[in-house]
UniProtKB/TrEMBL annotation:
PANTHER family: SUA5, THREONYLCARBAMOYL-AMP SYNTHASE. Keywords: ATP-binding, Cytoplasm, Nucleotide-binding, Nucleotidyltransferase, Transferase, tRNA processing. Its main location: cytoplasm. SUPFAM superfamilies: YrdC/RibB. Its EC number is 2.7.7.87. The keyword Cytoplasm applies. ATP binds at R58, N62, T118, S144, S152, R191, Y227. The lineage of its organism: Bacteria, Pseudomonadati, Pseudomonadota, Alphaproteobacteria, Sphingomonadales. Coiled coil: none annotated. This is Threonylcarbamoyl-AMP synthase. It is found in: Cytoplasm. It comes from Sphingomonas carotinifaciens.
Amino acid sequence: MASPNPSILPYGMAALAEAARVVAAGGLVAVPTETVYGLAANATDGAAVARIYAAKGRPSFNPLIVHVPDLATAETLAGFDEEAHALATAFWPGPLTLVRPLRAGGPLSALVTAGLDTVALRVPRHRAMQSLLVHCGVPLAAPSANASGGISPTTAEHVAASLGAAALILDDGATPAGLESTIVAGRTILRPGPVTAAMLESVLGSVSRGAEHPAVITAPGQLASHYAPAKPLRLNAVGADADEWLIGYGPVGGDETLSATGDPLEAAANLFAALHRADAAASMRIAVAPIPMDGIGEAINDRLRRAAHP
Ligand code: AMP
Ligand code: MG
């Protein structure tokens, strides 16, 4: 049935063309997958990825899963060893996410991976997400399409109720109200899901279970899920002290700026690349200008606080 809400379009060629236009313009599209509705944006466009966090009202930056149409595309973004290749061949398209080492100099925004040198990749099976990927021709970052803390959406109406007009919604009915995808790094299950340990063992021989958000790296193959600079970092700096690399914002200039105009979306898009550059600079310490707490500023401040007090 046609919806009176113009931001909900029934799945079809017209909706896919409009969705591809929205993605190319840096906007957000909610799209069903075989798990739940995802909130998708161009993973190579930092400002578009920042809009995902802003729309969800997430108080922190978690690395996001990057969706691609096939293994060949995944291999252009990250390295696949023999075991990862075997898993992809066995379970893609499907609800399996593989954490793989990023290819250097690749196109993904650092905000997608939260500055890590690994990326979580998935080839989804659902026809709507598959067609959207093909129409867009870019990898799509997509967490669940609900406001932070809300329940995962399994219908277009859930998405509209949770996110309002923040996204164009591609309506292809209710998702098979599935579990979130299984996440695997090497032979370690970071998050259990529809692809079970027994299914993974049938390909790998043996697997181990790891924490989804390990506080510290306790064993090889267990990945810390956040990048933090190695140097000491000072918050709310309005000027640089001796031997500090100053990351500015708005009226506070610096060695570089997150956003000269004080645009929090631009600042979020630049954050991880700026931290990497500060880490690589000659100065021994890092300082960052004050960032207002409104909107996505909360997530920026959360990340900076953790970088300052690891
Ligand atoms: P969601 O998109 O909400 O299903 O959550 C994505 C999950 O993937 C989160 O638990 C992330 O911590 C995890 N994840 C994404 N990228 C990575 C990565 N590079 N290394 C480890 N975990 C990751
Ligand atoms: Mg979620």
